[in-house]
Each structure stands twice: as structure tokens, then as C-alpha cells.
Amino acid sequence: MGNRLTQIATRTGDDGTTGLGDGTRVRKDHLRVQAMGDVDELNSQLGVLLAEPLPDEVRQLLRAIQHELFDLGGELSMPGSELLQPEAVARLDEALARHNATLPRLKEFILPGGTRSAALAHVARTLARRAERSVVALGAVDAVRDTPRHYLNRLSDLLFVLARVLNRANLDGLGGDDVYWNSERLKRQD
């Protein structure tokens, strides 16, 4: 394992740069730092979601995802490293299929809402999409493996499905179903 932080306020970033895991320093607005920050924000949002009442299976899955996101952040901070394994994408695919199989087919677009936990899962979904866009932007100018991009793409899909699962779990008594978009255009088509 690399060096552990023993001091948080080092003041080395006062000049607008930050150190990567490989020791190089880059500007804090570098695309790599943006991607790392977006992954960190996503992981933090999952921490907020984990503070809610959740079904045990969902809680265990989200905790595992947090560790994988930390691996992803580490990989982004050390150019050329491979910390997030392709098996992590396969685990998301399996969880996506398993949870999606329990849900009714969508009748319409749904809005982010319902239970508090479902709404928080939707926020995490949007953060996963942002992190994915940041990784794609970084990959356009610097080497990034496919696994991080695949992982974030799958994770956003899984978080959408988990929001639907959490609405049905209805652990706060405020949900029970998806919140469907009330489209005037679609009403006229019926």
C-alpha cells in the first residue's frame, strides 16, 4: 500500500496544484482531477444513501460498490495502474439483471422521487453519469482503460433500477411505486 496520510492540511495545494498517486503534480482543474472528484462525489452520495433504511441486500451491494469506487478513484489518481477489475463490471451486470427481474416493465418515463432512499439513489445515478462523462473526457486526452467507463455506465443503470426497488420496499412509508411522468403529449396519443 502507498503512503498513508498523516497530515491533512499540507498547504501544498495552495498554488492550485495537487499531487497524484504517482507523485506527479497537476493543476486542480486537470481532467484527471475532475474525474477523481466526480467519482469521490458519487461515493459520498452513496454514503448518504447508506444512512437511510435499506433492504439488507441493497445495503451490502452499495457497500461493495463504495469499495470498488475507491479502487476506481485510486486508478484514476495513478496513471497506468489497474485497480478496478473487469469482474467488478460483471458483478454489476449480475446485480442489474437480478434486481431488474423483480420489477414490472416500465409503462412510462419515471421521475426521480418516491421514497427518500429512491430519490437519493436517483441523485447517485446522475452523479454516476457525470463521473462517466468525466472519465470519457479524460480518455480523449490521456490513457484510461475501458473498465472504469464500463463500470460507471453499468452503475448508473443499476442505481436507476435500485431506485425502483427502493420505492417498492417503501421502508419510509412514503412510496410504494414509481413516480410516472405526466406527459401531456402522451396523454393526447392515448
Explain what the structure shows:
This protein is mostly helical and 190 residues long. It has a single domain (24-169), classed as Hypothetical Protein Ta1238, Chain: A. The protein is 59% helix and 5% strand. It has 6 helices and 4 strands; from the N terminus they run E-E-H-H-H-E-H-H-E-H. The chain has helices spanning 31-50, 56-77, 86-100, 116-141, 146-169, 184-189; strands at residues 17-19, 25-27, 110-111, 179-180. The chain has a two-stranded antiparallel ribbon with strand order 1-2. A hairpin with a 5-residue loop joins strand 1 (17-19) and strand 2. Helix 1 (31-50) packs antiparallel against helix 2 and helix 3 packs parallel to helix 5. The chain is elongated and about 50 Å long. One of its GO terms (molecular function) is ATP binding. It catalyses: 2 cob(II)alamin + AH2 + 2 ATP = 2 adenosylcob(III)alamin + 2 triphosphate + A + 2 H(+). It comes from Caldimonas thermodepolymerans.
